Amino acid sequence: MESYKEVGRSVKRVDAYDKVTGRAMFTDDLCPKPCLVAKILHSTIGNGRVVSIDTDEAKKVPGVVGVFTCFDVPDFAYPVAGHPWYADSAAAKRDIADRRLLDDRVRIYGDNIAAVVAEDNVAAERALRLIHVEYEEYPVVYDARESMKGTEVPVQEGKPDNVVAHTLAVTPKEKLGEMGYESVEDALLDPKYHHFAIKTFTGEQSQAHIEVCVSYCYEEGGKIVCVSSTQIPHICRRIIGQALGIPWGSVRVIKPYIGGGFGTKQDIHFEPLNAWLCHQVGGRCVKLELSREECFWDTSGRQPKNFEVEASVGDDMRLHARSIKGWSNTGGYIHHGHALVLNSVNSFRWLYHTCEDAVRCEAWTIHTNGPHTGAMRAYGVPEGVWTAECLMGDIAHDMGWDGVEFRLKNAIAPGYVDEFSPSNTISYRTDGLRACVERGKEIIDWDNKRREYANQAGPIRHGVGVAFMVYKTAVAPFALETSNAQITLNQDGTFQLQMGATEIGQGADTVFCQMAAEAIGVDTEDIHIVSFQDTDVAPYDPGAYASRQTFVSGTACKDAGTKMRKRILELAERLYPDAQGELDLRNHAIYDGGDNRLCGLADLALEAYYNIHKTDQLSTRGQATVHQNAIATGCTFCDLTVDIPLGQVTIDKIVSIQDDGRLINPKLVEQQIHGGMAQGIGFGLSEELLVDPKSGRVRNATLLDYKIPTMMDVPDLIAENVETQDPMGPYGNKAVGETPIISPAPAIRDAILNATGVKFYEMPMTPQRLFEGFKREGLI
Fold this sequence. Notes:
Keywords: Molybdenum, Oxidoreductase. One of its GO terms (molecular function) is xanthine dehydrogenase activity. This protein has 22 helices and 31 strands. By secondary structure, it is of the alpha/beta class. The radius of gyration is 28 Å and the shape is globular. The longest helix has 27 residues, at 549-575. A hairpin with a 4-residue loop joins strand 28 (629-643) and strand 29. The chain folds into three domains: 16-24 and 482-625, Aldehyde oxidase/xanthine dehydrogenase, molybdopterin binding domain (Aldehyde Oxidoreductase, domain 4, 2-Layer Sandwich); 31-138 and 213-289, Alpha-Beta Complex (Aldehyde Oxidoreductase, domain 3); 301-476 and 627-776, Aldehyde oxidase/xanthine dehydrogenase, molybdopterin binding domain (Aldehyde Oxidoreductase, domain 4, 2-Layer Sandwich), CATH 3.30.365.10. Helices cover 29% and strands 25% of the residues. 55% of the residues are buried.
C-alpha cells in the first residue's frame, strides 16, 4: 500500500476548538438582531384545495409587516431536491419542479399556504391564529399501493395513477437461456432448489438533527443574500433563482457552520420562500426558523418502503435466483423521487451476487398524501440491505446453516461489475469484506456464542447476529460528479484552502486539509481552511451528500495541491537558477538535488508577494469531474439480550468493521462509524414517524414522542476498519460518511432471530411489534 505522510494521520479536527468552546458561529448566531421574523401557516387538511383566505384581522395585529398567501406568490414551480444540474435540458428535466413558494393545492397535512412577516415571534404567531381559511377537501390516501389504483383527484397533475416512476431490470434472456430457463420466475420455482419468499417494510425515519432548519435573507448590492443551514449552498442559489424567476447570479448564499443535516438539508424547503418574503418587505432582513415540530413533519424524512422478495438456493449454499419488488411512498411531492428506491433494489443486487444468480428487480415510487420524504443517510440503501439480510437470515436459520458462512458463499467479490449501470462504471475493485468478517467474528466470539446460545428457553434469551453491507461512493454515473478547490500561498509560507464542498459536522474540512498538505508536501497544520461557503467567492461544488466529498471534492483538492507544489518549485527554479539538481520541497523548505537548503518556504512566499522585479502570488485551482465509482463494504455483528414478555432488546455488544478504502483520518472514521451505528440502532428499534392514515397528520412530531437513542440506549460501540487502496479514490479512499448506518439494524434482527427463533420483517422492531411477534409464535 502506498505510503503517505499526512494522509492516514489522526490529526485533531480543524474546527474542534471553536466548537467545544462555543466560538463556532452557526446561522442563528450570525443573524442580525433585531430582525423581522417569518412564520408559515400550514394546512389543517391532508388533501384538497384552498378556496379562500381571509387575512384582514391578521394584518391588524401590531407588529405585523405583511401577510402573504398562496394567491400572492409568483407562479414559478421549482425542484426541492438537491440534485446536480445539467447543461443537457433533457437531463435537467429529471429535476422535477413540483413545488411553489405557497400553494393553494394542498397535497399533504401541513402544506404551506400562507406566511406572516412581523417584528417578532409573538406578533407573527398571533397573526397566524387570525387567518381564516376555507378548503375544498378531498379524500386522503396514505397507503402507496392503494394510491396506485388511482384517486378521485391525482396527488400531482399529470400523474393520474399517482405513480412517479416504474423501473424493471432483469437478467438478460441470453444468460437465462444458458441456465436453461425462460424467465427468472422459472429459475425461482425450479424444484431442484429451495424456495423462499418474504415481505418487508421500513418506516419513515427522521434525521432529528440538533440544529433546526433556519435561514435569514436580506438584500445587498442588488442581490438577495441568503444565509442558511444548508448542505448544498451552490444548489441552493440555483433553486432560489428558479423559484423566484430571477437570474441565479442575483442570489448569494452563505453557509456557516451547520448543526447536522443527514439529508434533510440536502433539500431546499424554505430558503426560496424566505428570499421572496425578504424582497416583499423591501430587502429588510427576515429570519425563517422552523420549530422542532415543523422539522419533523415539514421537512424530508426517509421514504417508507414495502418490499416483496424471493430467492431459490441450492444445497451447496449458493443462491440460484432472486427477485425483489419495491414500493416507495414519496408523499405529496417528488423531492428525490425514484432514486431512493432504485438505491434500495440496487443494493439488494450488489450485496449478494454469484455468476449463477438470476435476478429480477422492479420498483415503483408512488405519490400519496403522506408527509415529505427525501434524502436520509445512505439514501435508500439501509432499506434494501434490511430486506436482503432478512432474506439471508431466514434462509440460514431455516436450513440450519451458519449465517456467516452462507453469506460469504454469496457475497460480492472482487471484479464485480454492475451489468445494469451506465457504461459499467460501478465496480468492486478492492475487497476488504472477507477480512472485515473474520475480524468481526473474532471480536464478537461468533462460533462460541452460537454454541452457547443454542436451545434456549425461558423469558430472557441471548442471541448473536450478523449483517453485511454494501454502498457505492458518490452519484456517478447516474448524475454529474464535479468539484473545484482553490489553494493560495500565504506570505508566511502557510496555505489558504477554499472548498466549495461543505463541512456539516462530519470532519470534511479536516481531511481536505490533510489531502492538500499531502499533495503540496507540507504539514496539515500549515493549511488554513475557510470553514464556510459563500457562493460569490467559494469555488463550485454541489455539496455534502452521497459520501461524495472525500472522493470527488478530495480529487479536486489533491489536484489543486499538486499544482501548487509544481508552482512553488517552478518559482524556486526561477529564483535559484544556479541550483544543482532537481529541486524538492520538504521540511517547509526548498532543497536542491542534495541536502542543500536553499530557502525556507516562508522566504519563498515573501519573494512571491514582494519581489521588486516580478511578483508571482501563487494560487491554484483544482478541478475534478469523476465518472467512475467505488464500492465500500463491511459488516456488523451484534450480541444482545431479549426480554420476551416485555418485548425489550438490550444490546450487550455491537461491532462494525468496514472496508472504506484508505483512511484519510482514522479517528474521524471511527467517529463516523460510531454515529452511524447509533442511528442504525435507532432505525432498527425505535425511530419511525407515525402517520394517521385518515388525515395524513404526523402523530409523534416531538423529541419526546419520536424515540431516538440516548446515551442510556447505546452500548459501547466498537468500530474498526480493514484498509484497502482503491484505485479510484484520490488517495485510495472510498465512502465512509453513510456506510455505518446500513447494517446495524439487520444485525440486531438476526440476533433476535438467533435468540428467539422469531422472524421480524417490519422496521423499526419496536416493543409493540416484538411483543406481537412473540405472542404470534406462542412465546407469550
